[in-house]
Amino acid sequence: MVRINRVYTGGGDGGETSLVDGSRRSKADLRFEVVGTCDELNSVFGLVAMEAERLPKHEDGGTRATVQRVQTILSMVLTRVQNELFDLGAELACVPSALPEYMVLINEDQSKVLVDEMDAWLEHIEPLTSFILPAGHGPEAMLHLARTVTRRLERAVIRLKEHEGEASVRPLVQVYLNRLSDWLFVLGRWVTAGLGHDETLWQPLGKRGPESGVADRIRRLYASDEDFKSL
Asked: Cα–Cα distance between 71 and 49 in angstroms, integer?
């Protein structure tokens, strides 16, 4: 059982900190970049959960069953993946050959669950006919952010492998992160559909027409304020 009596130790004041095996490295080391990005991603998952809880549960005096469905599923999957990300962060804080024997590592089962869930969500959303923009009313937007941070973590893992060698990270880690990014994309689409929201479709530059901006509207708004004050 983990028991933490105090957080501050002063051991990292000089810019170094310890890996799981006790070895010391600079806090700017690529491995700590990976661990820190994993921690950041886990924090974004916390924001997704917060936004999900903020969804209005009632509308026009009635209960919104769709919101309850979305909140229930998000609560279940987010907590599970946050735990998996914590497992992953602990694993990445050391080279695989030096990991403690008692540490249980994520495996193919976790990736398979992500795929199974994606397949289930895809049964209830329309196929894409265009790319979509990272937008939304709450948890959807945060899920897009989580997806992009996942891709950044994946890139950091690849950089670490290129720097320290193939044996520096288990291949399953990279597979899991690749699945997780796709999972977040599909989950975001399912949440959007489940809440009855429209996706924001990307319009190519050639179809958007000339760009005029909002400068004239800004000037008219302030002119209207001045006219109102003069009354």
From this structure: 9
Spatial separation of the C-alpha atoms in residues 75 and 174, rounded to whole Å: 25
pLDDT at 207: 82
In the chain, the N- to C-terminal Cα span, in Å, equals 72
Contact by Cβ (8 Å): 66, 196 = yes
What is the tens place of the pLDDT at every residue in 160-207?
999 999 999 999 999 999 999 999 999 999 999 999 999 988 888 888
Q: Can you list the positions of beta strands (E) in the chain?
A: 16-18, 24-26, 58-59, 62-63
- pTM, full prediction: 0.85
Q: Write down all domains in the chain, each with its CATH number in brackets.
A: 16-204 (1.20.1200.10)
Q: Which residues pair with residue 59 across a beta bridge?
A: 62
pLDDT tens-digit series, residues 59-77: 654 457 789 999 999 999 9
Report which of 109, 104, 110, 77 is spatially closest to residue 90, judged by C-alpha positions: 104
| Measured distance CA(40)–CA(33) in Å, rounded | 10
| Cα–Cα distance for residue pair 91/85, rounded to 1 Å | 10
At 28, give phi and psi (nearest 5°). -90, 0
Strand partners, 131: none
Please choose, from the candidates 84, 30, 49, 28, the residue with its C-alpha nearest in 3D space to the C-alpha of residue 191: 49
d(CA 65, CA 43): 28
